[in-house]
Amino acid sequence: MPELPEVEVVRAGLAPAVTGALVTGVEVLDQRSLKRHDPASGDFERGLVGARLAAAVRRGKFLWLPILPAKSAQSAQPAAPSATSTPRALVAHLGMSGQVLLRTPDHPGGDAHARIRIHLEHEAHDELRVDFVDQRIFGSMAIDRMTPTPDGRPAGFSADVTGEWAGFVPGQVAHIARDPLDPAFDERAFLAAFAKRHSAVKRVLLDQTLVSGIGNIYADESLWAVRLHGEQPASSVSSRRARELLAAVRGVLQKALAEGGTSFDAQYVNVNGASGYFAHSLNAYGREGKACPRCGTLMVREPFMNRSSHRCPRCQRLR
């Protein structure tokens, strides 16, 4: 499943094309990709056609495009919601195999896995098309109503959302905690909560209500970096080691971002269809039977929550 770096790569590639763009048409090719769309938010197609998009925003693995109020649709500048309006956003979740691809209007339409197409007009980029492609149909798109963030801080990562719009988060994203690269991430609160958890440290890292965006790959990489066993109870980890782990998480995520994310197959690509190459930098994940880059011991794979954990049995002992 795409994790924070992969979704951020998509967001960063999408932002210049959608910010200020006018939606001129919508094609829903497979209704199953609207499974998270709440009819109370209005008809999906009618809710987008004629609207203007304010930006591309991300929190953890969720991506959303705020929809400007109708009165602002003719302006490319984001506007604040009125006291009586309910701000809305187009929310995309990539699931296991979802892709958001930027294409020209005349791009051939024969992709068997295309589920939704959104046609745009942009002042700088002219006509564009955003294709939501999803082979396994675990991902989705939806129009969702937004609510103010409890702390009044920007709801997610985006260099484009400014003013009052920054403080609104889609309802289906509101329960997701901020991620470690979010400028508004509360490090002190995270470390305090981490110290009280008696469950395994890897389970804590994957708890999206505590910290978002960290999936199986980057949890394994971060734990390897600080020599921690994934089953070590979080409450038994010293405050110094917990800070080291958080720093390692941030370092791994930033390195993966710089390398375009992790692609093991053609299912994860950026908006231009290109694969990331962080898979070549992995030290733990997927390396069972290979030498640990640090000590040379053969790496092992162990079952974990219907998935697998990868670690070095010498460097990462349960203490």
Describe the structure.
The chain has two domains: 4-170, N-terminal domain of MutM-like DNA repair proteins, CATH 3.20.190.10; 187-311, Helicase, Ruva Protein, domain 3. A hairpin with a 2-residue loop joins strand 10 and strand 11. It has helices at residues 4-18, 44-48, 187-196, 201-205, 216-225, 239-258, and strands at 22-28, 57-59, 62-67, 88-93, 98-103, 114-122, 126-134, 140-148, 168-170, 300-304, 307-311. The protein is α+β, with helices and mostly antiparallel strands and 319 residues long. Mean pLDDT is 88; it is low at 75-84. It is built from six helices and eleven strands. It has a five-stranded antiparallel beta sheet. It starts with a helix and ends in an 8-residue tail after the last strand.
List its traits.
20% helix; 11 strands; N-terminal domain of MutM-like DNA repair proteins; alpha+beta; 2 domains; Helicase, Ruva Protein, domain 3
